């Protein structure tokens, strides 16, 4: 299994541009997450999904959108990029049954995004 | 709401010395607690987790952590560190209900030869 893969690894975006960060997992996990990690800060949850067709906001959803049309893919869309969105973005997934908050999340390697 | 405080942003320690990385949490309900490690330019991976039962939890790479409910702490320890333990360590908390995990700001462990 490749686990959780993210593309691109690095990207520079101009203010006002849009882009999509890709995340794919091949573990048949039902839960998927998007986090951002800023220097000196912990991970902040942007959006999450408990299964195909179901998404919900996390702590910091403004400026982002997601979709989950398949179990494997969970893309993150940035519309009208701003310098405040410069960050490292991590996608994660896990399989959860009756006690979802006990289960281990598996993280991708991250996407380093700079907005200039 | 839940929150996590990691009291030390940077911890330098000599090789083969013991280390403790501190984590305190705040929650009005019962929690599950996790420690993740992040090596340079990689994603996070789980070191250990406390769900219930014994308050001393053993994880991978010789790490262990102790859950202390009265002090709302979950400190990570290792009796003898190696150069390869140099990494960023994150404490995280979740609850039985809800779908979110809350992460601390991280502790950068540097092992000095």
Q: What is the total tally of β strands of chain B?
A: 12
Give the SSE string of chain A. Answer: EEEEEEEEEEE
Low-confidence stretches of chain B: none
Principal-axis shape of chain B: globular
| Overall pLDDT confidence of chain A | 92
Q: Can you walk through the features of this model?
A:
The complex is a heterodimer of chains A (about 120) and B (about 110). Chain A has a single domain, classed as Immunoglobulins (Immunoglobulin-like). Chain A is an all-beta fold and about 120 residues long. The radius of gyration of chain A is 14 Å and the shape is globular. Chain A has strands at about 5, 10-15, 20-25, 30-35, 45-50, 55, 65, 75-80, 85-95, 105, 110-115. In chain A, strands 2, 4, 5, 6, 9, 10 and 11 form a 7-stranded mixed β-sheet that branches. In chain A, strand 5 and strand 6 form a beta hairpin. With about 110 residues, chain B is mainly beta. Chain B has a single domain (about 5-110), classed as Immunoglobulin-like, CATH 2.60.40.10. Chain B is about 0% helix and about 55% strand. Chain B has strands at about 5, 10-15, 20, 25, 30-40, 45-50, 55-60, 65-70, 75-80, 85-95, 100-105, 105-110. In chain B, strands 2, 5, 6, 10, 11 and 12 form a 6-stranded mixed β-sheet that branches. In chain B, a hairpin with a 5-residue loop joins strand 7 (about 55-60) and strand 8 (about 65-70). The interface of A and B includes residues 33, 40, 42 and 90 of A.
């Amino acid at each position: 299994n490749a686990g959780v893969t993210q593309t691109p690894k690095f990207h520079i975006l101009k203010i006002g541009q849009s882009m999509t960060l890709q995340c794919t997992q091949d573990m048949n996990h039902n839960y998927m997450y998007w986090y951002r990690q800023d220097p000196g800060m912990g991970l902040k949850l942007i959006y999450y999904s408990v299964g195909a067709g179901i998404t919900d906001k996390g702590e910091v959803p403004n400026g982002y959108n997601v979709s989950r049309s398949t179990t494997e893919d969970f893309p993150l869309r940035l519309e009208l990029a701003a310098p405040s969105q410069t960050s490292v973005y991590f996608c994660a997934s896990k399989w959860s049954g009756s006690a979802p908050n006990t289960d281990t999340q598996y993280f991708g390697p991250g996407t380093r995004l700079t907005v200039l | 709401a839940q929150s996590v405080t990691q009291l030390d942003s940077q911890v330098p320690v000599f090789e083969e010395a013991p280390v403790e990385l501190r984590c305190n949490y705040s929650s009005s309900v019962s929690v599950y607690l996790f420690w993740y490690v992040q090596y340079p330019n990689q994603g996070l991976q789980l070191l250990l987790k406390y769900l219930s039962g014994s308050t001393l939890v053993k994880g991978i790479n010789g790490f262990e952590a102790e859950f202390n409910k009265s002090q709302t702490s979950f400190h990570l320890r290792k009796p003898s560190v190696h150069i390869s333990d140099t990494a960023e360590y994150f404490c995280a908390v979740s609850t039985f209900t809800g779908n979110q995990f809350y992460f601390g700001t991280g502790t950068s462990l540097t092992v000095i030869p």
